Amino acid sequence: MTARSSESRIHRRLIDSLYTEAMLLADEARSYFDEAGRAEREALDPLIRVGFSCESLKVTTRLMHVIAWLLTQRAVDAGELKPREALDPARRLGHAPQFDADLIRALPVRARTLVEASANLHRRVGLLDAAQENELAPSPVHRLHDRLALAF
């Protein structure tokens, strides 16, 4: 087994693991914000209730950005997209909506946990997205090697 195929297999397993995590978190968020969280939201002060609704949308946005990025990575692994195509700005992760820490402290515990988990997942996937650009940039050593190969 070559180092490249080993790296590819590890990358695929990481993407699959993150995809599973994102889908489970999305299902948990949907369940909470659509069902269980309604009673908790109604018990909140009206201004905090608006913030609760905004944060639920931000959680969904973060998770959809992550899932779309992970699906792009799966398409690259399957050969449906070239790695360079994944660097198109439309296929990149995108920015995560920020949250107000004071508002988050006023939310019910489960809502706060979902907001923080979605932000954490987005941050981790963001590190992979940033690293992907660096991986595809030719290193000076590779450029020198290519120049030497052309010369001889």
TrEMBL record:
InterPro entries named in the record: AraC-like_sf, DUF1465
Gene3D superfamilies referenced in this protein's UniProt entry, alphabetically: Protein of unknown function DUF1465
Domain of life: Bacteria
One Pfam family cited in the UniProt record for this chain: DUF1465
Protein name from the UniProt record: DUF1465 family protein
Originating organism: Sphingomonas liriopis
